[in-house]
Amino acid sequence: MKNDYLTINGDCLSINNTSPDTEKELAILFLDIRNFTGLMESQPGHSVIQVVRRLFTAFNQIIKNFQGKVVEIAGDNLYAVFGLQTNIREAANNAYHAARMMFETVNLFNRAHGGPFEGGPLEIGVGLHTGKVFVGEFGLDKPAALSVMGLPVNIAARLQAKTKELNNDMLISEDAYRLLEPEDTSFGYKTVGLQGISQSQQVRLAGKPYNNQHSLSASQQHIDYLLAISG
Predict the structure, then answer these.
(1) pLDDT higher than 70, residue 59
(2) Highest mean pLDDT among 85-99, 118-132, 178-192
(3) Does residue 31 lie within any of the structural domains?
(4) Distance CA 217, CA 231 (A)
(5) What phi and psi values does residue 130 have, to the nearest 5 degrees?
(6) What is the C-alpha separation between 134 and 25, in angstroms, rounded?
(7) What are the tens digits of pLDDT across the range 86-119?
(8) Which of 43, 47, 82, 144 has the most beta carbons within 10 angstroms of its beta carbon?
(9) Domain boundaries, position 222
(10) Is 111 helix (H, G, I), strand (E, B) or coil?
(11) How many domains does the chain have?
(12) pLDDT digits (tens, 9 = 90+) for 27-57
């Protein structure tokens, strides 16, 4: 293992690089659990976190089943890539079908509950893009882990954030959409600007509107039920 060192304010920081970055075309997926802050404010934090962790455990298995890899989970966000072992067309289709299955997993949670939460059902937002990125391993004072960096990662993240503004829970870039087999002609088409990205992006509105009438606020009874059905 090669260790590089960076000095910040006189302190020496170890950076673990176990392999050089290589350029590869991947499908990149960002997912966010909606209304997470409202749920955390209204319910015991440990109960909410247990629900989210079990959802993410299910999401991780789905991603693995479609030959993807979770790069990072932070709070209510998940970031995954597809195509580390496949070509880009297969990667895009795997990412798309994994996203659909994750939506269905959330729907199963909501249907098993028997109705909407007190303030609305659990919802997720997804952004999907494809492009050439740099893949390697990187770590700060810890074992190096998968690192994927490049403009396409930023675009995928911004697409996920844009789902709120466009009120559509899944946005697919035109680049990724053209790789889908078969292309779904029912998807809406839009040219949008993304924060921090100079060039406008063509996207497909591949999801459905959010349940905007309510903010998520479940009772403790509802949370307990979710914990029970999620195993």
Answers:
(1) yes
(2) 85-99
(3) yes
(4) 22
(5) -130, 155
(6) 9
(7) 999 999 999 999 999 999 999 887 776 544 444 4
(8) 82
(9) 2-148+213-229
(10) helix
(11) 1
(12) 999 999 987 776 667 666 677 777 788 889 9
Read off the CATH number of the domain in which 20 is found: 3.30.70.1230
Q: What is the dihedral of CA 161, 167, 168, 173, to 10 degrees?
A: -50
Report the pLDDT averaged over residues 147-176.
95
| Residue 165 contacts residue 120 (beta carbons within 8 Å) | no
Q: Does 192 fall in a domain?
A: no
Is there a domain that residue 46 lies in? Answer: yes
Residue 201 forms part of a structural domain: no
- Cβ proximity of 159 and 206 under 8 Å: no
Q: Give me 66's structure tokens.
A: 């479609």
CB atoms within 10 A of CB 107: 13
Residue 183 has pLDDT above 60, yes or no: yes
CA 166-171-175 angle, to 5 degrees, is 130
Q: Which residues are registered as beta bridge partners of 185?
A: none
3-state secondary structure (DSSP) of residue 214:
coil
